[in-house]
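Hi R.,

As promised on Friday, here is the backbone we talked about, encoded as structure tokens. Could you run it through your design pipeline when you get a chance and send me back a sequence?
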């Protein structure tokens, strides 16, 4: 799964992914030097802890993620997250987020569509296309409003972000800074990200908490790395010289782009995403 997560209203309704995120960013992308794995994964969400003034007494939900494609045709991802936040005293927030995206494997083009519903109330959908042209990126939004604007060419899309993280991990780097655009929020948000990469975990090491990915024959020989990615609002001003991340996500990232052992930190509360199901899908080889 891609970083969950990178989707609108993350801190309010546990939106992952894209996701890579980046949730929503989620956020399953091709590793540099190897193919991405086409797969479907289901993650069960639960509350780890609550802190700060906006305390949460309970949280639960699911993320269903589908990833297909290859380096020639590009990569398609479909993401759905249904989550429920209970702040106590009968105050429950139910959110249902659906997103789909396609990204050119070379990072030249990125199409995205995001629909969010909260407590049966529809939010304005986000629908757009971003294309890399020369030294800049041109974004054309259809919704929530028709608008065209430009981004610096150094900005990366979600697939590129994961490719860079895996490449850095293979080179033994522990820190990576990237600026990411994924179409989240109103389609205009850009995030500065800081990725901290831990030591590689060989495929033959038994995990403390196994899941369907660690028992899969396809995954058993795969190296993975513990990664924490912090997302910062690029347009927010730092206080006292230090900026607090909007949210952070930790996960173990396989070299074929699959993620397991998700932990989503939204400052006021922390959510875990344990993989409940994992299915490898047939994929066309790149011609």
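Update: got your reply. Pasting your designed sequence below so it's all in one thread:
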């Amino acid at each position: 799964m891609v970083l969950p997560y990178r989707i609108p209203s993350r801190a309010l309704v546990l939106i992952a992914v894209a996701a890579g995120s980046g949730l929503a960013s989620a956020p399953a992308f091709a590793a540099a030097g190897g193919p991405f794995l086409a797969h479907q994964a289901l993650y069960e969400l639960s509350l780890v802890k609550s802190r700060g003034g906006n305390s949460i007494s309970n949280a639960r939900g699911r993320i269903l993620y589908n990833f297909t494609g290859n380096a020639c045709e590009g990569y398609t991802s479909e993401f759905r997250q249904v989550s429920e936040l209970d702040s106590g005293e009968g105050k429950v927030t139910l959110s249902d987020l659906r997103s789909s995206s396609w990204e050119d494997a070379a990072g030249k083009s990125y199409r995205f569509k995001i629909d969010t519903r909260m407590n049966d109330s529809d939010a304005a959908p986000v629908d757009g296309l971003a294309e890399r042209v020369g030294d800049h990126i041109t974004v054309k939004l259809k919704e929530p409003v028709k608008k065209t604007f430009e981004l610096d060419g150094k900005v990366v899309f979600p697939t590129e972000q994961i490719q860079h993280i895996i490449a850095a991990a293979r080179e033994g780097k522990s820190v990576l800074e990237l600026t990411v655009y994924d179409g989240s929020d109103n389609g205009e948000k850009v995030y500065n990200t800081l990725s901290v990469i831990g030591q590689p975990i060989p495929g033959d090491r038994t995990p403390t908490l196994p899941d369907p990915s660690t028992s899969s024959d396809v995954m058993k020989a795969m190296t993975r790395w513990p990664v924490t990615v912090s997302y910062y609002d690029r347009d927010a001003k730092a206080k006292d010289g230090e900026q607090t991340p909007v949210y952070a996500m930790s996960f173990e990232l396989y070299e074929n782009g699959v993620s397991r052992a998700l932990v989503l930190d939204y400052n006021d509360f922390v959510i875990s995403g344990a993989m409940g199901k994992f299915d490898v899908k047939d994929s066309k080889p790149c011609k």
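One thing I noticed while checking it: Residues 1-33 have pLDDT under 50 and may be disordered.

Thanks again,
M.
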